[in-house]
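subagent[fold] <- orchestrator: predict structure for attached chain, return C-alpha cells only, no commentary.
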Amino acid sequence: MSATNVDDMAVPSARRISWLEIFCYALPPVGAGYMFCLVTLYTMKFSTDVLLIAPALMGTIYGLSRFWDAISDPLVGYLSDKTKTPMGRRRPWLLGAVLPTVLFFWMLSAPSEGLSAGMLALWMGVAIIGFFSAQTMFIVPHMSLGAELTDDYHERTKIFAARHAGWIAGYISALGTMYFLILAEGKSETAVRTLNADQSLFAGLFAASCLLVCVWGLRERPEFADKAPEKPWEAAKDIWKNSHARLLLIVIFIENLGGAAITILTLYTAQYVMNAPEMAPFFILSYMVFSLALTPLWMPLAKRFGKKRLWLGSMLSTAFAFGCMITLEPGMEIRLLVLAGIAGAAGSCGGTINPSIKSDIIDLDEYRTGERKEGAYFAAWYFVSKSAYGVTLMITGFALSIAGFVPNAAQSATVIWTFKGLYAGAPFFAYIIGAILFSTFNFDENEHKKVIAELEAKRGKK
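subagent[fold] -> orchestrator:
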C-alpha cells in the first residue's frame, strides 16, 4: 500500500445504514438464537432423560456433526461467494435456509413416538447434523451480508451490535421455554414431548418469517457480484496468508475453548458445585441480560477508544469474571449471578466488535487480491469457533470420567475441583492467552481508511 497520510486523503463517505435496514438484518438472529439456545442447552438433556438415548451415543452424534462441519462450512462459504442471481450472492442462501431450519428444528423437538432405539438414534442424528448444516446456510451468508452493507469503520459496529442484540434476545426467550420444559419433565414424558413439539412449530414459523423479512428488506451491493474467488483452495490460502485473519483464527479458537464453558458446564456447576440446580436458568439469564443491556454502549465506546482496545478489555474482563468463579461454594448464588453478569457484559463487547473487525480485514483482502470472499472468511472463523466447542466438550467428558463423576449423586472433592477447574480455570487462562496474542493486532482505523481510499480509487476507474 502506498505510504499516504490519512489526514490528506479524500476518503469517500461510506454509505450509511438506515434503521429499517438494521432492523431487517437483526431480525433473523432472534429466531436463530432461540433455536440455537435450546439445541445447545436442552437437546442433550431431552435426548438422554426423556428419549433415553445413551449419553455416549449422543456425544458421538455431536462429534460426527463437527466432522461434517469441516466440509459444510467452507463449502457454504465458497459457494455463497460464487453465487450469482438477480437477488445477489447472500439472500438466496437466506431464503434457502428457511425450510431446512424449520424442518430440522422440528425433528429435534418432536421425534416420532414408537421408534425403535436404533431408529430413534438415527432420527436424532439426522436432525442434529441437518440443523447445524441449516445454521451454517444461514449464519455464514448472513454475517457476510453484514460485512458488505457498508465500508464505514463504525457503521459496521452498529450493524453487528444489532445482530448480537437480536441473537441474545432469542436466547433469553429460549430460557423461558427451557424452564417450562424442565417443569414438564416432572409431570410426564407425554407432557414434555407435547410441549417441545408445540414450541418447535411456533418457533419455526417465527424464524421463517424473520428470514423472509430480511430477504425482502435488504438489498446487496452489485459491485461485489463479480469479485468472487476462482478456486476454494486459493481462497483458503489467501485467508491463511493474511496475517490479521490468521491471528484472529488462533485467538477465536483459544477464546472459544474457554467460552464454551458457560454452555457446557453451567447446569453441572449449579447442581454439583452450588447445590442449587433450580438456579441454573437464572445464572444463564444474568449473563444474557447484561449482554443485551450493554450492547448499545459499544459503538460510541469503539469510536472513543478504538475497536482493538475495547475487545482487548472485554477479554481481560471475561478472564477476571470466570477466574473468580474458582471461589464458588454452596450458598454463593449471588456471587455467581454477579460474575455471570460481568462475563455477559464483556461477552457482549466481543460479540459486537469481533465481527466488525473481521469485516475490516476482509476489505484488506479485497485490496490485496481484488476479490470479495466474505463467505470464505466467515466460514473459516465460524468453523474454528465450533471446533473449539467440540474440543471443550470432549475434554470435559474425559476429565469428568477420570475424576470419577457419578450422575445425580453427591460428588467427591476431586470431581468438585474438576468442575471448578473446567468452569473457572480453563476460561481464565484461555482469555488471558487470547488477550496476549490479540495485543499484537495492528490493523486500526487509520490503516482501514487507507485501504478504503485505495479501493474507492480502483472502483472509480472501472
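orchestrator: received. Logging for downstream: The chain has a mean pLDDT of 87. The chain has two domains: 17-226, 230-462.
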